[in-house]
Specification:
Blueprint lengths: L26 E6 L5 E4 L3 H4 L5 E5 L1 E3 L3 E6 L2 E10 L4 E7 L8 E4 L5 E7 L5 E5 L5 H8 L6 H4 L6 H6 L7 E4 L11 H9 L3 E7 L22 E5 L1 H12 L4 E4 L1 H9 L10 E5 L14 E5 L6 H10 L1 H13 L10 E5 L1
Helix pairs in contact: 8-9
């Protein structure tokens, strides 16, 4: 399909630079099949779902994966995006033309790494030196990796260490937040419990590839970056049982959706999963696991815009985004939410 089918014009003043306060005060556009759009709020979620439905969250935790350093006099920026082993990460590099294999980069605070290998996409393998866990080094020298559309408008600060982390964050490894879950609070979780709506978690370590634009003219020519995910057997059993009992699985975020679909066979049964996934969902895809999606508003011509168009229909999503823009919804990572039920 032509990538231009997923384009739209967004006024820059609708890009949210900070989250709503409190988090659950965000707006939520509800789209159910062909029904008229409903302008609601995130706090309305318990009454919009049914008893027995299950919300599926990603419990990955964002690490401070953005580093600024030097190789000699050259300034080098690094954004880690995939762990390779205990001390080695693949990283996108700014000013990569000044970096050669086996160069040492000094990131400050006693943190150094060797640029071991340059990959075909221009990224490098960075091997961190020393005995301290890499997570400790990153806490000392790294910054939260805010997406470019926020970081390009303001500096990352200490508030982002809290704001850019969901209440479900448990497993270190993401370099981008599963932002649909940023709206959840203890207050909202309690209301969902009281309404009989279940909650389950899985883990997909979101990579920086999620921010990369689709440069190809046709979706067939786009290469997705792989991300590591896991769903344990006990969680799978509960999810399958909920579906068998008539409950709907509502993915909270595209990361949860992509891992659920990766773990589900053509028979519709979800199975335990622990592997990389590079699933790329475009219109024509047959969904096997999810019955709905709660998600923020995505970038034009992005793989995530293609995913929501696959779920709801390409023209339907163009209409959804036109409505959201006309009504002043806030877009992207710190923005408002939508509930999409085909």
């Amino acid at each position: 399909m032509k990538v231009d089918l997923f384009d739209f014009d967004l006024p820059t003043d609708l890009i949210a630079l900070r989250p709503a306060r409190p988090r659950d005060a965000a707006r939520m556009l509800v789209v159910q099949g062909d029904a008229p759009f409903a302008d609601c709020g995130v706090l309305d979620l318990p009454k919009l779902l049914r008893k027995g439905d299950v919300l599926v969250f990603n419990d990955t935790r964002v690490i401070p994966a953005q580093l600024e350093g030097k190789r000699g006099e050259a300034r080098i920026g690094a954004t880690l995006h995939k762990r390779l082993d205990l001390r080695r990460w693949q990283a996108f590099i700014r000013n990569a033309k000044r970096l050669k294999p086996q160069d040492r980069v000094e990131f400050g605070a006693g943190v150094t790494a060797i640029a071991e290998e340059r990959h075909d996409d221009g990224s490098f393998t960075l091997a961190f030196e020393g005995d301290e866990p890499v997570e400790v080094l990153l806490e000392r020298a790294g910054r939260m990796p805010l997406p470019p559309y926020i970081a390009g408008k303001r500096k990352t600060d200490e508030q982002d260490r809290e704001d850019y982390q969901t209440m479900f964050a448990r497993e270190d490894g993401a370099v981008a937040a599963p932002t649909a879950a940023l709206h959840f609070t203890d207050r909202l979780a309690t209301a969902l419990d009281e309404a009989g709506i279940g909650r389950e978690t899985l883990t997909l370590h979101v990579g920086a590839g999620t921010f990369l634009p689709v440069k190809a003219d046709d979706t067939d020519d786009h290469q997705m970056h792989a991300e590591f995910g896991t769903i344990d057997a006990a969680t799978v059993d509960r999810l399958n049982a909920a579906r068998a009992a008539g409950g709907r699985l509502i993915a909270v975020g595209t990361t949860s959706l992509r891992l659920l679909e990766s773990a589900t066979g053509e028979d519709g049964i979800i199975r335990a999963f622990s592997a990389d996934t590079s699933i790329f969902i475009t219109p024509g895809y047959t969904f096997r696991a999810v019955d709905g999606l709660m998600t923020n508003f995505h970038l034009p011509k992005s793989t995530l815009m293609m995913l929501v168009s696959s779920l709801m229909g390409t023209q339907r999503m163009q209409d959804v985004y036109a409505h959201a823009i006309a009504q002043g919804y806030r877009f992207y990572s710190y923005g408002d939410s939508s509930l999409l039920i085909p």
